[in-house]
Here is the input.
Amino acid sequence: QVQLVESGGGLVQPGGSLRLSCAASGIMFNIRDMGWYRQAPGKEREFVAFISWSGGSTYYADSVKGRFTISRDNAKNTVYLQMNSLKPEDTAVYYCARRRLGGNSPATARDEYDYWGQGTQVTVSS
Here is the structure.
């Protein structure tokens, strides 16, 4: 049974930091690329960050580049999203997802991912 469970969300002031975690089970985690997405109220779910199965390749949305860092620990079946210099516009529910198939380029489209977590709320406000 595939399961992705996000944690680490919360309320933070502008300029602050949070680290999100996504614990995976049942998905052969160490041979799968993973991604983070987010969805703000009234908006479409959007791509945030991608990491290859080995961790050797990462890719970011322009809106978070230089502020967010995606990483993974295959021994712990966990992928992380370190978020620094947070802005109010980063407020959203954040989701991790497993890439459906492998590939030679980063996966940014939603339909490239097949399993999703339940999400964790991040609120950036003073």
In short: The two ends are 40 Å apart (CA to CA). The first strand starts at residue 3 and ends at 7.
